[in-house]
Amino acid sequence: MSDSSARGAANAVTLIRDARHWQTGERIERAFANGQVLERAPAAPDRVIEAGGAILAPGLVDLHVHLREPGQTAKETIESGARAAAAGGFTSVACMPNTKPVLDSVAWIEWVRHRAEKALCRVLPIAAVTVGQEGAQLTEFVALERAGAVALSDDGRPIMNAGLMRHALEYAKQTRLPIVVHEEDLTLRGDGAMNEGLTATRLGIRGIPAAAESVMVRRDVELAELTQGRVHFAHLSCKASFDALRDGKARGLRVSGETCPHYWMLTDEAVADYDTRAKMNPPLRSDLDREATVEAIADGTIDCFVTDHAPHTEDEKRQPFDQAPFGIVGLETALALTIAGLVRPGHLSLSRALELWTEAPRRVFGLPEVSIEPGSPADLVLFDPELEWTVDTSRFASRGRNTPFDGWRLSGRVLATFCGGQQTFALEGAPAEARA
Ligand SMILES: [Zn+2]
Questions:
Q1: Measured between alpha carbons, how far is residue 334 from residues 92, 159, 354 in Å?
Q2: CA–CA separation, 38 vs 36, rounded Å?
Q3: What is the DSSP string of 381-393?
């Protein structure tokens, strides 16, 4: 413990000593005060954190989380979700509008922003594309942008009507907001509950073909061309979708895409014993799709990572497989799963992996730049890529415990997170924990 104190005042200077630069690996120190990284450390900082060679990076950004507020606070709240984000090294999260009620008006966007003022990370609301996410009437895009929405999405549902999707893309051009699409042809999904394939057949569970996702990605690549609109593809999970996105990019269209750790870590075999913790939408796919996910990340087809953090109560997940809700939590395991699935096997360098959680998502949504250099907002994460730990959902800050990674031994742990210069997380026992 080597923490010489004085938190309190906003103008107090914190010095992080003996950290490693997330890009260059060189030994650095950084001081910050008033929410900003300083040009140089003063001779007598108010607080010193000995990083012991841990990596210092810009705070992580997650463009796709479900905070469940308003309406479903037993699953998660803005407060608990933001605390989980801080524990995972995130300083900004964009929250999806499929709450109850739906975030489809200026009043609800303002409500979320107000509610998030004291939260432990920046919460950026995404507004619905259609009123009530009912797929019929477009919301007021321009007013929603002015109210602070960072994107538009009917996530949780596809926009099945192609004509409406065309109008949405044209109307959104009056704003800087991307349309974030949850791609799923409902006529192909039917009442499927997991990936269509051998495992589903063996378990007697109705399957969802990968084409339910990819035919919609193909459609929206075509509509991006027709409208010259801006499309961002949410949680892509299968080879044919990556191929469609790759094709759209090659044609110079304004398209981008994201994927999540579970798609590079797992296949549909994780459902083996009717484990509802492996039930998500899009579903875990075949090993061929898992390999294609890694390839699409490595070759730059995928623009950024997201968690699709989707908390549910234990009672809901304890239902029979068919009836249990789709979704897993992801904020507190994201970084370690990135190291386990991508960095350790040599698919990505650590700095590139971090970029996909920091600068890359900022570019996708046009968010202000954050770095660890002087003048930047002090949104920072200090983490140890070698530190081993066991995932224990009973210790999660999230109200959600629904993850198939419970009990996994992983390496890579966040030691401390700072948002706007304020410490929002400290790992128990880590040097950055002790406080004034
Ligand atoms: Zn979705």
A1: 14, 28, 11
A2: 6
A3: EEEEEEEEEE--G
- Which residue is catalytic, options 155, 308, 379, 384? 308
- Chain center to CA of 248: 23
Give tens-digit pLDDT for 8-38: 566 899 999 999 999 999 999 999 999 999 9
CA of 206 to the centre of ligand 1 (A): 20
Give the pLDDT confidence score for residue 433 in this predicted structure: 64
| Helix pair angle (162-172, 211-227), 10° resolution | 50
Separation of alpha carbons 210 and 289, rounded Å: 9
> Ligand 1 centre and the CA of 5: distance in Å?
43
Q: Which two tokens stand for residue 119?
A: 């939260």
> Which residues have a Cβ under 8 Å from the Cβ of 368 and sit 6 or more positions away?
362, 377
The pTM for the full model equals 0.96
C-alpha of residue 375 to centroid of ligand 1, in Å: 36
Is there a catalytic annotation at residue 308? yes
